[in-house]
Amino acid sequence: MRNRWSESELLELVSTYPGLPVELTAKIYSSRLLAQEPSLILHGGGNTSVKAQGQNFFGEPLDCLYVKASGFDLSTLTPEGIPALDLAALQRYKQVEKMDDQRMTNELRRHLLDPQAANPSIEALVHAFIPAQSVDHTHADAVLTLCCQEGGKALLEATLPGFVVVDYVEAGFPLAKAVQKALEAHPKARGLVLAWHGIITWGATARESYDLMIEAVGLAEEKIRSLTQSPLPEASAEELEEATKRIKLLSPLLRGLLSQLSGGKRWVLLPLIEAPVLALVNRHLDALVSGPLTPDHLIRTKALPMALADLDVVDPSLARERIKEALERYQKEYETYYDRQAGRLEEQLERFDSLPRMILVPGIGAIAVGPNARHGQIALDILRQTLVTKGQILGMGKNFLGLTEDHLFDMEYRGLQHYKLRHQTHLSMVGRVALVTGAAGAIGSGICHELAQEGAQVIFTDLAGENLERVGQMFLAQYPTQVFCHPMDVTSEASIQACFDAVVSRYGGLDLLVINAGLAYVSKLEEMELARFQLLERVNVEGTLLMLKLGAKHLKTQGCGGDMVLVSTKNVFSPSASFGAYSATKAGAHQLARIASLELADSDIRVNMVSPDGVFSDDDKVKSGLWATVGPDRMKARGLDEKGLERYYQDRNLLKARVTARHVGKAVLFFATRQTPTTGATIPVDGGLPDATPR
């Protein structure tokens, strides 16, 4: 555990926030330092505070507690994420013996200096009851490793002199009271270890509490090293290579069954194929099917992982049956667990779904399951931390010791946890994985924007090169957890399959394919170059055929339906002179999509088309490849400049509408969200062109 403190970095931050008390700026700095260590803090975990002087409404000095707000991340902490509360008012709650979560939340908000500020951490009273100026609380892996085994309390006391070990108590007001009593009994304590929870350090300054945290965790790490009897082996390169092959076969089957068993909901699967994890799961599966390191993880992981052993992925039908049996068994066990404990619920809470969030698979490693990639990544990081920590305990010759079922249930079915889930954004494409071809062009990027805004994981594909990299980076900056860029040539079956394999390895599977890549060519028939026509045929027709073919194969394997949308054109219905190559090849693609809708309907795979005309970019940074080809000829023929040509296309439709790429994206979204039972249909996106109306 390395001490990262830098006085020069602190001074730089002080200059960034000149109006803040120096003590508060120092606490923001130390909080960010703590969050740089994944072995201390993961994904918004932990909380910190500092006691400093503020001002009341009348400008009079007031002793305040500045504590991290709920939902904020220490790694990016700013003044808005560490609101001030009236310290004296908070300390009066030492007189209270019992308080439920809702009442505590109300009381904390009552004492905020700014009533519009974010909710203080659930541990705000813990920080208020500790008399030191600066307080840090983390979920250090090393401390949990020593705690989560028989004799853990004695081991921690011997490892961390001056620290008091507090038996497990539910977070919130019960923990605040336990901390109060521990400090009353041990007024000279240097810090606290909270069993199955974490570690608290304090000091007169932010640096003192930070230094003590690093020192204490370093001592715990050294103790683990000294007690390790046999470091666990790591999987070989050959085992890892085989696991990578197996996950491509397993994930679509697993993802499809998860969807079927959750009424059609889509899940993102993130594999954990790493040498230490694979070795652990291969050799110690039974020991790993146990509870979490801390109940704080339950909202992401559930109480227990699911084991998926003896799996033969070579035979898909046998593998599917084996996976289904394991999932149904897990569901039944979860429902039984809920029924055993539900009678103790103090408030009526809806039961969570009974599907696993962590799956252990010998021969592969582990898989995290999430409603989208962001939440899946959190589950993945917790899963890795949990397995590595349990592996360290096994290496010490000990067995993992977790909390009892009633403690786990109380944390999982706690009103505050349900409140967090209820207030997550419910977008129409959350959990769905969409692949868009030709994404680096105007129409493709417009489609990607609409899908990403509705929560989809978007696979941004186009030919390899500067355009894909440039536009892809723009999307990654705007949707960092939702966009995955991958080069793909739609005329190459191997290239398409490689892209599909990459998507399966990253997310588990696909739900929507948007076939948008295409080429245009301006030429009269009598002057047409056959080679140029054949190039359009390869991209527009054969590319569509290959996407339909491989997409159908994948979606059928997944077994939970899916959607394919072809970006067609008004030229299918109303072709233009000197545009025969484009009109003919797009008509061929359109017809293939219609046939696919007939052939795939019994697998609940819907195939539909959108038919735009004269689409202009929503963003000057992303130009249309089609217009780069045909625009100059059209402008020359009509004696117009670029803006004039745009007005021409706008004026020729019935609605006099400027048709943009985002409009095409909305039409794709209509089909992808299945608002009507429709397949084999075409939506015109052209402002109204009677000659181009599908018929």
From TrEMBL:
Swiss-Prot/TrEMBL keywords: Oxidoreductase
Class II aldolase/adducin N-terminal domain residues: 26-224
Q: Can you tell which superkingdom this protein's organism belongs to?
A: Bacteria
Q: Which InterPro entries does this one have?
A: Aldolase_II/adducin_N, Aldolase_II/adducin_N_sf, NAD(P)-bd_dom_sf, SDR_fam
**Entry annotated with the keyword Ligase:** no
Recorded GO MF terms: oxidoreductase activity
**Xref: SUPFAM superfamilies:** AraD/HMP-PK domain-like, NAD(P)-binding Rossmann-fold domains
User: Key word Transport present in the record?
Assistant: no
Positions the record marks as coiled coil are: none
Q: Name one Pfam family in it.
A: adh_short
**Alphabetized PANTHER family for the sequence:** 5-KETO-D-GLUCONATE 5-REDUCTASE (PTHR43669), SHORT-CHAIN TYPE DEHYDROGENASE_REDUCTASE-RELATED (PTHR43669:SF8)
Similarity comment: family membership: Belongs to the short-chain dehydrogenases/reductases (SDR) family.
Name used for this protein in its record: Class II aldolase/adducin N-terminal domain-containing protein
Annotated source species = Candidatus Lambdaproteobacteria bacterium RIFOXYD2_FULL_56_26
List the top taxonomic levels of the source. Answer: Bacteria, Pseudomonadati, Pseudomonadota, Candidatus Lambdaproteobacteria
